[in-house]
Design a protein that fits this description.
Among the domains are: 314 residues, Beta-galactosidase, Chain A, domain 5; 97 residues, Glutathione S-transferase Yfyf (Class Pi), Chain A, domain 2 (Up-down Bundle), CATH 1.20.1050. 25% of the residues lie in helices and 22% in strands. It is globular, with a radius of gyration of 26 Å. Keywords: Signal. This is Alpha-1,2-mannosidase, putative.
Length: 779
């Protein structure tokens, strides 16, 4: 991977953790490789975006895939592909489902082609071949040479704007094709309606409404060019209208050019140019006026909206965001960790316009007066580590915005509940649980964010009591979700119970004993789906019996479990691991079962039918979230040295600083957040407990700078491949006997020091008093 040279004027003269007496810190942008995870499993994109930006401007190597073929192209870009179809403005980072790819632009030199063509037949359409050797990517910047035309394409982005810069071969006529038909996860009938409108000042605006993963999604854009438009044509390909060479306004016609339809394209001609063409594109979920206002705002910012000015501002924003965590580690690990932090800061993305307007889940326009609305909530994935990470590295306005956005979404929801899996303000109803609840509770319990706690708790309770959702009516009556009435019932039972525990924790702190008592009771409902005789979490029928036949290795969509089997889900009791271990027969039997999970011979099992089952270590599946806390559970059984062993095994096998460096899709930053926490030496097994379970570090030194100016430092002595065990842990110079650290201890600042060694210390952390929180022993 090649990294772009960075202007000396933008070097890190004021990273937040650096004092005048300290040497200049390395530029964190130099250690981020956006190509990590762009291989088939990671589903990341390499293009340009600002931290949490509304615009993700990136190349699409296949924007015409259908159904299962789209899985590898969920982010639009897949590293093995040989061609680029165009550059679109919206993408998910690491999602397990595909959508977006809005407003696809492709530059062309000389002859203009109107269809993408066949990637196996060069020259059959407007898609073009490219060589990875010509690509450059870093935070806020992407570049590639389109081999068939010789056009050099560069991309950068601000919060609500994307900028293209195209350098055309000398003497060749320059053209742009805007294809409103193209969309990721495409299928017939996805484009419900679209429009194009060329205004007298040369601004091109438009919109489209799509029926995809999120039904009825509306997106508007405004586009301006650095060179005058010589000619243009708006085409509706459903009408099969050929190019007619319409004159642009101001060149012989006072009429505005407009077109509506379901298969629109715009051909924009610029003649022969003597300088690179810059294309400025702003988005809005509200209307074209909102997109124009977002574009105007970017142009009025200091430095304007030129390519170089926007790139400089975005690189400065990335430098500040990444600079909150200074990491010193062996080179491959440093790249992995800084890139993980970069991926963790891509979402939840900005959704409201500069004037505060946004489109809500009711498809109506609302106004946020005191916060920036965020969307793209992959909550089943991100409640585990992504959101807890943001409470440390973005604890102020971003966390406030997230909670206020979740609560506002509930206020405008036709169902009166919090988001499940939302993007562009639209609900997809993907995955299970009501995991906006732990995101809110975790922030509140940590004292992070400025939001109305009463309104937040009301939204949490409303979501947990919404009987029509996912078998919740039966869950509240029976104490479990019955499999003969609701699919994936075993998983839903335990995930609801965990979410209920976080409601209880928040209510208790607020002095709402009535709410706390009710939800603490529900937090114990996981027992109702646990078969103590067999030692497995199992689905039960409405008559109370466990469903048979039963195979703990079976993975099937719509079965007893969600994207997993009994091996993974039998460990999901993060709020009360001690109680679970007691049911399993105590520490020794628990440790033996954990070992059996990691050591299981899966060579004779076929999981190819399940897309998200990747990164297997026995029955531990790191490429999917239900396994993510499992390696840390040894600490709850008094054997943290086994956690240390397993973490080394997982990190070495599941992460690399290469395009195929993620073993599973990143899921909007969850895979990356797991690595970042693990690299620092601790992990939030139970968000809402205000504890992090200590594992082992993979850094030599790291410094987290908090908004209050305090710093939390991780130091490691003796880090090496041979020294995989922790010999000693010290907090602020004093020995730490317990296998967890509190959130308050991190926010107070100080130093967590690890001393590594080749042999395990089996006594450290083994005492019952040294183990992390469990509900049954804490209350």
């Amino acid at each position: 991977m090649k990294h772009i040279p960075l202007a000396a004027a933008l070097l890190v003269s004021a990273l937040p953790f650096q004092s005048a007496a300290e040497p200049a810190a390395p530029d964190p942008l130099a250690f981020v490789d956006p190509m990590i995870g762009t291989g088939p499993e990671g589903h990341t994109f390499p293009g340009a975006t600002a931290p949490f930006g509304m615009v993700q401007l990136s190349p699409d190597t296949d924007a015409t895939c259908r159904v299962r073929d789209c899985y590898d192209h969920a982010a639009g870009y897949s590293y093995p592909d040989p061609t680029i179809q165009g550059f679109s403005h919206t993408h998910f980072s690491g999602a397990g489902h595909s959508d977006l790819g809005d407003i696809l632009v492709m530059p062309q030199a000389g002859e203009v082609r109107l269809d993408p063509g066949d990637p196996a037949k060069p020259g059959s359409g407007y898609r073009q071949r490219f060589d990875h050797a010509t690509e450059k990517a870093s935070p806020g910047y992407y570049a590639v040479t389109l081999a068939d035309s010789g056009i050099r394409a560069e991309l950068t982005a601000g919060t609500r704007i994307g900028i293209h810069r195209y350098s055309f071969p000398a003497g060749k006529e320059a053209h742009l094709l805007l294809d409103l038909r193209a969309s990721l996860y495409d299928y017939p009938g996805k484009i419900l309606w679209s429009g194009l409108h060329l205004r007298p000042d040369g601004t091109l605006t438009g919109f489209r409404e799509t029926r995809g993963w999120a039904p009825g999604r509306k997106l508007f854009f405004a586009m301006r060019f650095s060179a005058p438009v010589a000619n243009h044509a708006f085409l509706d390909r459903d009408e099969n209208i050929p190019y007619k060479g319409f004159q642009a306004p101001g060149r012989g016609s006072d009429a505005l050019a407009e077109k509506l339809g379901k298969a629109l394209e715009a051909r924009i001609d610029f003649g022969t140019l003597t300088a690179p063409l810059e294309v400025r594109v702003a988005l809005s979920g509200v209307d074209e006026a909102g997109a124009i206002a977002n574009l105007d705002a970017a142009e009025k910012e200091a430095g304007g909206a030129s390519f170089d000015a926007v790139r400089a501002r975005t690189e400065a924003a990335w430098r500040e965001a990444l600079g909150r965590l200074r990491i010193d580690a062996p080179a491959p690990m440093r790249t992995n960790l800084y890139t993980a932090l970069y991926h963790a800061l891509l979402a939840p993305s900005v959704w409201s316009d500069v004037d505060g307007r946004y489109r809500g889940p009711d498809d109506q326009v609302h106004v946020a007066r005191d916060f920036t609305v965020r969307s793209t909530f992959s909550l089943w994935d991100t409640f585990r580590a992504e959101h807890p990470l943001l409470t440390l590295v973005q604890p102020e306005q971003v966390t406030t915005d997230i909670v206020k956005s979740l609560v506002a979404s509930r206020e405008h929801s036709p169902h009166g509940i919090l988001p499940v899996w939302q993007f562009a303000g639209r609900e997809t109803w993907t995955m299970i649980g009501y995991h906006a609840v732990p995101v809110i509770a975790d922030a509140y319990l940590k004292g992070v964010g400025d939001f109305d706690a009463d309104a937040a708790l009301a939204a949490m309770v409303a979501s947990a009591d919404y009987a029509p959702y996912g078998g919740l009516g039966d869950y509240m009556k029976l104490g479990y979700v019955p499999i003969d009435r609701e699919p994936e019932a075993a998983s839903k039972t335990v995930e609801y119970a965990y979410d209920d525990w976080t409601i209880a924790r928040m209510a208790e702190k607020m002095g709402r004993k009535d709410v706390a008592d009710r939800f603490y009771k529900r937090a114990g409902y996981w027992r109702n789906s646990f078969d103590a005789k067999s030692g497995w979490l199992r689905a039960r029928l409405s008559d109370g019996s466990f469903r048979t036949p039963f195979d703990p290795t079976a993975i099937n969509y719509g079965s007893d479990y969600t994207e997993g089997n009994a091996w993974q889900y039998s460990w999901f009791v993060p709020q009360d691991q001690k109680a679970l271990f007691d049911l399993l027969g105590g520490d020794a039997k628990t440790i033996a079962k954990l070992d059996a999970m990691f050591d299981y011979d899966v060579s004779k099992l076929d999981y190819s039918h399940a897309e998200d089952i990747a990164g297997l270590i026995g029955q531990y599946i790191h490429g999917n979230e239900p396994s993510h806390h499992v390696a840390y559970l040894y600490a709850y059984a008094g054997a943290p040295w086994r956690t240390q062993e397993r973490l080394k095994q997982i990190v070495d096998s599941q992460y690399k600083p290469t395009p195929d460096g993620l073993s599973g899709n990143d899921d909007l930053g969850q895979m990356s957040s797991w690595l970042l926490f693990t690299g620092l030496g601790f992990y939030p097994v139970a968000p809402g407990s205000n504890q992090y379970v200590i594992g082992r570090p993979f850094v030599d030194h790291a410094v987290l700078t908090l908004p209050n100016g305090k710093r939390f430092t991780v130091e490691t002595a003796g880090l090496s491949d041979a020294n995989r065990y922790v010999g000693k842990v010290e907090l602020n110079g004093k020995p730490l006997a317990r296998s967890w650290i509190s959130d308050a201890e991190i926010r107070a600042g100080g130093t967590l020091r690890f001393t590594m060694q080749a042999e395990p210390d089996k006594a450290w952390g083994s005492a019952a008093s040294a183990r992390p929180y469990s509900m049954s022993s804490a209350r």
